[in-house]
Task: inverse folding
């Protein structure tokens, strides 16, 4: 039987779905849609808007760091009376806290998991939709509410949350009203990711097409599966912590408040007896797995793009799968390496130092397998491949600079400095976000039937790649010199930083240049919807199932139910008549 | 294309979508309450003094509520079993009883809250009361959620029995798994807060 379906091959029974025939209203099709592809795009667009917002907040902050105590140009008038002369310290703190929150919880995760997961995962496993379409819609709208609450918090008295994205108690408990909004927003976001992760796991385990065994799953699906488990199990403790902090703020309890606290307004009237460190434990119990939630889907995207553009199978597929599972497991027992400076004791520190060193092993295995995959491939360089290739050294820099942080002794010096900022931004910004760009350029033809402009894409890539180095490399220098991460004036007042404060301006120019080059992407993204070059269903000559569906896939995804006959990366198989064999193609010998 | 395995079991995983979904959801609930119980342990071990639960809370009332909730778990099992035996009237009876018992639990709990409020035992008074209020209130919210879901399956939702009996039984089973979990949380909460 020939299972390679073409768009014109019409299979009648495939369209007899419950809502295949009657027309859907505009609201049903585009707003409250149950289709995983529409929900995926809703997630992606919302998340990209939040990424832009989060980045804009940072570009404003960088003005204060580069040119302290001068009026913000261009948009200064929009920032309100308090910031007319220069950015007020409280506002600076809000910007910092909300930059982190927005980028992590409203930008990268919703794009990587909600966007790519929703759009690509069901297609890659040959499913007609997610297992629970209504839950999927609920998940998006809960996320949206969380986003609205977070955004609205900028306009409450005292401004948005200003206790850092980590919201350490007890300062966060006595902070302005914005913190309460932050907590409510987080509870929405956590609920959303819970609904989403249940859906992803059930979909992956239950809706795989016939023949798609676990060892035939594309690596992207494995990465999303492990990510979903992390979201499922790591987020609830933060929900608990969020409820407790909300109680501290609203009901006056003292979960995180020790006795005898005194503020500028005198002693606090609380019962005391709580533990500020408890917040840190609960927070990092989520937030460390969250780091892997940020990086694993990115690795999944990179794996797909690399295999496709090297025209050879991913090297060490089984090892990659084992590594990603081990990584997921280990990520639950490394959280306290964020807390070496809290005085929790050397036994605890030694334990978490050891697990941290162990978790670097699977990360290095994955990166090495990607590198070896490049060896002796006949590599093509379309825009997604450029981003995917850039991911490798960027993630390597980010990952390797993390090792000294995971050891207690050097962490004494590095803790809370720009070195830490440089480290995790190398992982997340030129690492994860570059991989997400690779994914957007890669799957854009699937969603629209057209490719994005190659020229604009290359300008976007090279501009971003070069300017982003000026943002984050100097952070290692200033961090090693001891520049603290949350200094309002970038360290101007400190004698020991006088030699390095000049780097602040360099980093700011880098950030603004990075912002400039995103204009090419934004333009390209919208322009190509109508004007991009039209392509067929499989423009990259890829092997996985999503390329077997029409572009864009109709409701129900496939024109006939797919069946899988082989592994995900059968590129350049010796003896085959072309250099890729799709997963849905039957073996001619057995047909 | 219809979504597969909404009712039937997938042969290689041995479950249908609903059952796998509810178990995953319960796994995350374990982590949620696990975080709260860990908080209890850490705060109690770190506290200078900790009251005996039975000095502050009424053990007889707590015991009564425990019995009520265990009873509702039993009726929940009976409700699902009745569906499997195709006895719709029995299902209505047992499911109704489950909802009533849950409401009894909530009523007793409300009386306990009222009693605490009238004595000024607010969450802000001591760490013990803080954790008592937070954990029991969160558990209470879960009970309310269960009442809504079970009430729906008892009332308007039960029409599905006549069109898709198997799917309906699966849904009631999932609701039952959730309900047993909520009971289980109370079975931990009761000794931890009232007795220890």
Result:
């Amino acid at each position: 039987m020939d299972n390679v379906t073409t768009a014109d091959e019409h299979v009648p029974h495939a369209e007899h779905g419950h809502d295949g025939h009657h027309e859907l209203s505009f609201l049903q099709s585009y707003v409250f849609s149950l289709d995983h592809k529409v929900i995926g795009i809703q997630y992606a667009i919302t998340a990209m808007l939040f990424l832009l917002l989060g980045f804009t907040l940072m570009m404003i902050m960088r003005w204060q760091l580069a040119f302290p105590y001068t009026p913000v140009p261009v948009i200064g008038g929009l920032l309100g009376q308090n910031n007319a002369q220069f950015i007020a310290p409280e506002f600076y703190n809000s910007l910092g806290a909300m930059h982190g929150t927005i980028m992590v919880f409203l930008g990268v995760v919703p794009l990587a998991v909600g966007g790519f997961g929703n759009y690509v995962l069901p297609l890659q496993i040959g499913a007609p939709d997610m297992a629970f379409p209504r839950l999927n819609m609920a998940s998006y709208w809960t996320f949206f509410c969380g986003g609205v609450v977070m955004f609205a918090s900028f306009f409450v008295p005292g401004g948005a949350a200003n206790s850092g994205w980590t919201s350490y108690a007890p300062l966060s408990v006595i902070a302005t009203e914005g913190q309460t909004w932050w907590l409510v927003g987080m509870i929405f976001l956590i609920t959303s990711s819970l609904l989403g992760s249940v859906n992803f796991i059930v979909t992956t385990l239950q809706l795989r097409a016939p023949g798609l065994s676990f060892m035939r799953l594309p690596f992207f699906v494995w990465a999303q599966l492990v990510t979903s488990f992390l979201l499922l199990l790591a987020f609830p403790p933060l929900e608990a912590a969020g409820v407790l902090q909300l109680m501290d703020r609203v009901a006056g309890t003292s979960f995180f408040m020790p006795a005898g606290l005194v503020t500028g307004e005198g002693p606090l009237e609380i019962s005391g007896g709580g533990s500020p460190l408890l917040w840190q434990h609960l927070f990092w119990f989520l937030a460390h797995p969250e780091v892997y939630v940020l990086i694993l889907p990115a690795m999944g995207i990179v794996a797909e793009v690399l295999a496709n553009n090297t025209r050879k199978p991913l090297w060490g597929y089984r090892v990659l799968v084992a590594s990603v599972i081990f990584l997921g497991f280990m990520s639950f027992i490394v959280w306290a390496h964020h807390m070496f400076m809290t005085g929790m004791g050397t036994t605890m520190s030694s334990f978490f130092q050891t697990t941290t060193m162990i978790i670097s092993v699977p990360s290095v295995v994955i990166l090495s397998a990607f590198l070896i995959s490049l060896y002796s491939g006949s590599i093509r360089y379309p825009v997604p491949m450029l981003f995917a290739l850039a991911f490798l050294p960027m993630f390597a820099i980010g990952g390797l600079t993390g090792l000294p942080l995971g050891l207690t002794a050097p962490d004494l010096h590095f803790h809370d400095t720009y070195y830490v900022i440089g480290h995790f931004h190398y992982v997340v910004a030129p690492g994860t976000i570059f991989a997400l760009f690779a994914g957007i350029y890669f799957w854009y033809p699937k969603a629209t039937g057209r490719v994005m402009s190659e020229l604009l894409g290359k300008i976007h890539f090279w501009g971003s790649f070069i300017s982003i180095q000026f943002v984050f490399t100097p952070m290692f220098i200033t961090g090693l010199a001891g520049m603290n991460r949350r200094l309002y004036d970038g360290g101007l007042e400190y004698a020991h930083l006088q030699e390095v404060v000049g780097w602040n301006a360099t980093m700011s120019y880098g950030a603004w240049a990075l912002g400039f080059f995103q204009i090419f992407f934004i333009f390209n993204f919208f322009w190509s919807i109508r004007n991009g070059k039209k392509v067929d269903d499989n423009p990259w000559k890829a092997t996985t199932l999503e390329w077997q569906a029409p572009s864009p896939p109709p409701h129900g995804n496939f024109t006939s139910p797919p069946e899988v006959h082989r592994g995900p990366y059968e590129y350049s198989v010796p003896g085959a008549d072309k250099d890729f064999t799709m997963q849905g193609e039957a073996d001619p010998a057995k047909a | 294309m219809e979504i597969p395995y909404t009712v039937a079991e997938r042969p290689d995983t041995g479950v249908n979508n609903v059952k796998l979904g509810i178990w995953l959801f319960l796994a995350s609930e374990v982590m949620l309450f696990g975080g709260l119980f860990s908080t209890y342990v850490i705060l109690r071990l770190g506290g200078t003094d900790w009251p005996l639960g039975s000095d502050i809370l009424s053990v007889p009332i707590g015991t009564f509520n425990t019995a009520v909730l265990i009873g509702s778990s039993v009726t929940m099992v009976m409700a699902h079993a009745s569906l499997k035996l195709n006895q719709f009237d029995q299902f209505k009876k047992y499911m109704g009883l489950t909802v009533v018992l849950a409401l009894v639990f909530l009523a007793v709990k409300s009386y306990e809250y009222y009693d605490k409020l009238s004595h000024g035992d607010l969450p802000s008074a001591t760490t013990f009361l803080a954790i008592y209020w937070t954990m029991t209130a969160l558990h209470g919210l879960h009970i309310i959620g269960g009442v809504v879901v079970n009430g729906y399956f008892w009332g308007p939702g039960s029409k599905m029995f006549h069109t898709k009996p198997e799917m309906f039984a699966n849904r009631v089973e999932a609701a039952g798994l959730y309900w047993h979990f909520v009971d289980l949380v109370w079975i931990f909460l009761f000794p931890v807060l009232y007795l220890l």
Q: What stands out?
A: Residues 234 and 286 of chain A are 5 Å apart (CA to CA). Residues 1-20 of chain A have pLDDT under 50 and may be disordered. Chain A has 15 helices and four strands.
